[in-house]
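call fold target=T/G mismatch-specific endonuclease
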Amino acid sequence: MPFPSSAGVSARMSKQRRRDTAPEISVRKLLHARGLRYRVAWPIPGMKRRTVDIAFTRAKVAVFIDGCFWHSCPEHATRPAANDTWWSEKLAKNIARDLATNEHLHRAGWRVIRIWEHEDPSEAVDRIVDEVMRLRAEH
């Protein structure tokens, strides 16, 4: 890991939340208001240190709320100017990890929904509710 480019950058990055981010909480509140119950930070079986942001375990729907920076959003991705090589590798690994997680869950019979942090929470919740209800009806 490279040295931080400044003390301010280091302080800001250390405060980044891993869970319970504002977009995640917005989606969870809307889901709860619609009567859906779910698990938060649910551990993925067979994948150490990986969790599903919002899991509907009976319907087998895994929801991830992805940050535009950390997951390289095609619309809003940015990269720090300092330590460019390190950040390029780090963000590429994040993308590869997301793909591996998706594949692992698909093989286990799960439906994966990925939502970008910039998406409208109401629209995201509509997609989630539609999928959960459809899968519940099938079982």
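return ok
The domain at 16-138 is CATH 3.40.960.10 (Endonuclease; Chain A). DSSP finds four helices and four strands in the chain.
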